[in-house]
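The following block was generated as part of the benchmark described in Methods. Ligand: coenzyme A.
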Amino acid sequence: MAYLWIPPTGQVDVWCLSLDDPAVDVNILAGLLSTDEHRRASAFACGHHQRRFVVARAGLRWLLGAYLGRRPSALRFRYGPHGKPELDEVSAPPFSFNLAHAEGLAVYAVFGGREVGVDIERIRPELADAAIATRFFSPLEQRQLAKVDSIHWTEAFFACWTRKEAYLKARGDGLSRPLDSFDVVVDPARPPALLATRPDHWEAARWRLSSFIPAPGFIGTLAVAGVIRNVSCSPLRVTHWSPTDQAPGRLKTPKTTETLCHSLAAFRCEKSPMFSLRPPAYPPARAIFF
Ligand SMILES: CC(C)(COP(=O)(O)OP(=O)(O)OC[C@H]1O[C@@H](n2cnc3c(N)ncnc32)[C@H](O)[C@@H]1OP(=O)(O)O)[C@@H](O)C(=O)NCCC(=O)NCCS
């Protein structure tokens, strides 16, 4: 199968999407979702959360459609035993993906490799306390946290949280894997890493972590099986298509927003009715990754 856009081996493309843009027409985006996604959306009691779910899933579909050169609504997902989504394709695409959302922000990671997990959190001082650390972090992580100075303590708490969660998400384990069965580097000033795994000690060497700041006040971590050679971080924007948005002379008038979306994917996503992105730069700006 021909793909439009394949991240090189070891490349992680990170895309950030705001879920709370009031100008977004959520009804148009909902048209990209499958029946089961509509069912999940309608299970949210609060309209605000429902809307965020629709925007996040539409963003996921649109983004993967752009990589694959496929209509977003034609994509099918299957789910691992603990809920990790994968593309349900005849032959596995040459990349993996994962997503996370926190409040009004969604982050998507597309990795030129087999397994990727991403987690983001808003840094909330009111949530970070020693009792929660004792409950969720391993003894070694708690000892590391105890050595962090008070100014950096909350940041270290969320660095640890996202590093643990990203690893669990890369494996697809969710909370079926005990949180004290592995240790991560806690101090945000030190390079993130998976330090140890139990009982399978060799497992730790298989993984690389990279933490990043997806937006002010948030922290995120990527976990991949293999080597991270480069990471790019780019915004994904919901835009408002009108006929004047077409690149002159390059596109025929589309019959539906979806055919336009498809044509635009073929034009390497220069413009789109609902989302816009620029192809990630290789090599990328690395400034916000640590
Ligand atoms: C479901 C879980 C994977 C993440 O939950 P979360 O932090 O609430 O949500 P996130 O925003 O990080 O990720 C949600 C997305 O991950 C994906 N996902 C779901 N299950 C997944 C799994 N087992 N593995 C990887 N990705 C998964 C889905 O795409 C989901 O988004 P969608 O349902 O809207 O499509 C799971 O790890 C969990 O319940 N964690 C609880 C958090 C916790 O207690 N952490 C302890 C501190 S380290």
